[in-house]
Amino acid sequence: MKVEKKLQAWITYAWTDNEEGDFGYLVKELESIGVIAKYDRVCLKAGRDLWEQIGDKITTSNIDGWCYLVTENSLVSEACREELSYALKRVKGVKSRLSTT
């Protein structure tokens, strides 16, 4: 019996977007199609540098994808823009590795 690996995706979102459950809804929808949602409130450890952990999760962890919950709040969020820059850094790194092979 072959066990399929579940995909894992990091989600960038503005905390204020979960006040009405929008973010929670996205997480449930992803899980319903077999995608494990990774995000700050479930993946980060207390006592460690927040941005170092987020950067590691986005740029070097075994995630299969990155999602950005695009809302008015997330587009003006400094934290969301910071996560976007980590995601772009990861893409650039992948592209440069592919071009040298």
Describe this structure in words.
- It contains five helices and three strands.
- It is globular and about 45 Å long.
- α1 links the parallel β1 and β2.
- The protein has a single domain, classed as 3-Layer(aba) Sandwich (Rossmann fold).
- A three-stranded parallel beta sheet has the order 2-1-3.
- It is α/β, with parallel strands linked by helices and 101 residues long.
- The longest helix is centred in the last third of the chain and has 22 residues.
- The relative contact order is 0.20.
- α3 packs parallel to α5.
- The model has no long low-confidence stretch (mean pLDDT 86).
- It is 51% helix and 14% strand.
Q: What's the short story on this structure?
A:
The chain is an alpha/beta fold.
As a percent range, the share of helical residues equals 40-55%
* Number of strand segments: 3
Q: In the CATH hierarchy, what is the class? A: Alpha Beta
Sequence of strands across the biggest β-sheet: 2-1-3
Strand content: 5-15%
Global geometry: globular
**Total number of helices:** 5
Low-confidence stretches: none
Mean pLDDT: 86
Largest sheet: 3 strands, parallel
Structural class assignment: alpha/beta
* Number of self-contained structural domains: 1
- Order of helical and strand elements: EHEHHEHH
CATH topology: Rossmann fold
The CATH architecture is 3-Layer(aba) Sandwich
Q: Please tell me how large the radius of gyration is.
A: 15 Å
